[in-house]
Design a protein that fits this description.
Layout: H1 3-9, E1 36-42, H2 53-70, E2 76-80, H3 85-89, E3 96-100, H4 108-111, E4 114-117, E5 122-128, H5 131-134, H6 144-152, E6 156-162, E7 168-170, E8 175-179, H7 194-205, E9 209-213, E10 230-234, E11 237-242, H8 251-265, E12 269-274, E13 294-296, E14 299-303, H9 308-321, E15 326-330, H10 333-338, E16 347-350
Parallel strand pairs: 1-2, 2-3, 5-6, 8-9, 11-12, 14-15
Antiparallel strand pairs: 1-16, 4-5, 7-8, 10-11, 13-14
């Protein structure tokens, strides 16, 4: 089921910020394009989430293709209960390691661990995943961050927040972007004011500035995650994915345009990539986001949607912003049908 429609039916050191003295080094989340130790991903298995087993097979095949593509550039660890490992090994590259950590769904950006470093060691910054406000079963996914931290033997720091890393975009140099709709919400953080949530997010990411935009509440399962709209490509520089012909009564189109205006008013340099007009999947709920790409060591793994013109614009834009990396494009339509993309399915572990 589409994550957007589900709500209707289920109700490098020199690149890092300046560090403090040796005894006061602050933990911060590095830029995604800094060196990685590896990438974490999750294998989707839940029949409570995927009632159509044939569609689940398509989704699993897409996750395998993404993992195998990333594994050409850096190690990948795929998480899943051991009962699934034999079947997974048939479709995953030998460069993908499988860990026995049970999963429900594939969204590792949201359920997986958020890694921070002080330049010497790693720590998991724990923002509790609660299934996008208890909209989806997450008995296993809600425990992944803690289980990964335990297996790695690294500390975990809780910030008394519920939410998802897909709902926050960060440049690794002190600036965050978020939609209020994904955070200032009774289904995640009841009773918490925006300034309280902001303080905790800044602490978790080791940042000093958070740019808020309203977003869209209660019309998709994520309440309009920012990582399908805007992505930082450097300090105060980002790409945004906007419709070429916005619809006046489409709340997502109007919210995206407002986010764009706010970023420009805040002094962020913004380049627009148009959404595809002639994509393969015609469903109105299909999420066709060029912004939902993943930066790994020496490569960018991105989506193509079958629109020759906009696919090429997106490819050229990514090559311009990441000139020293290979741009690898994949057909990930199965994830778009679920309301997500490649970035949503991955989570980096930075190299220390």
């Amino acid at each position: 089921m589409n994550r957007r429609s589900m709500i209707m039916t289920t109700g490098a050191a020199g690149c890092f910020p300046t560090l403090l003295g040796a005894s006061q080094k602050q933990f911060f989340v590095p830029p995604e394009d800094s060196p990685h130790e590896l990438t974490f991903m999750q294998w989707p298995v839940s029949t409570k989430v995927y009632r159509d087993r044939w569609f689940l097979k398509d989704v699993q095949a897409t996750i395998a293709e993404i993992a195998n593509a990333i594994a050409e550039f850096e190690p990948v660890i795929m998480l899943a209960g051991k009962e699934h490992h034999q079947d997974m090994a048939r479709v995953l590259s030998t460069n993908v390691e499988i860990w026995d950590i049970p999963t429900d769904d594939l969204w590792c950006r949201d359920a997986g661990p958020i890694f921070a470093t002080n330049g010497e060691q790693l720590q998991v910054q724990h923002i509790q995943f609660n299934g996008w406000g208890n909209r989806q079963p997450h008995g296993n996914d809600g425990q992944i961050a803690e289980r990964v931290a335990d297996r790695l033997g690294i500390p975990i720091q809780s910030f008394d927040l519920r939410g998802e890393a897909g709902g926050i975009e960060q440049d690794g140099y002190g600036t965050l972007i978020a939609h209020e709709s994904s955070w200032v919400h009774e289904n995640r953080n009841p009773g918490q004011r925006r300034d309280e949530i902001e303080e905790r997010l800044l602490q978790a990411y080791g940042a000093d500035r958070l740019i808020w935009a309203p977003g869209v509440m209660n019309q998709d399962i994520t309440d309009y995650h920012i990582d399908s709209l805007v992505r930082f490509t450097g300090p105060n520089t980002c790409l945004i994915n906007l419709p070429e012909y916005p619809i006046d009564d489409d709340d997502f189109h109007q919210a995206a345009a407002l986010t764009h205006r706010i970023l420009e008013q805040e002094g962020i340099s913004v380049q627009v990539i148009p959404e595809p007009n002639r994509k393969r999947v015609k469903d109105i709920d299909f999420v066709a986001s060029y912004a939902n790409y993943y930066v790994c060591n020496n490569a960018v793994i991105a989506a193509e949607f079958g629109d020759k013109e906009t696919d090429e614009i997106a490819l050229n834009s990514l090559q311009k912003h990441y000139p020293d990396r290979h741009i690898v494009t994949l057909n990930v339509d199965a994830l778009g049908e679920l309301g997500g993309g490649i970035h949503c399915a991955t989570h980096e572990m930075p190299k220390v």
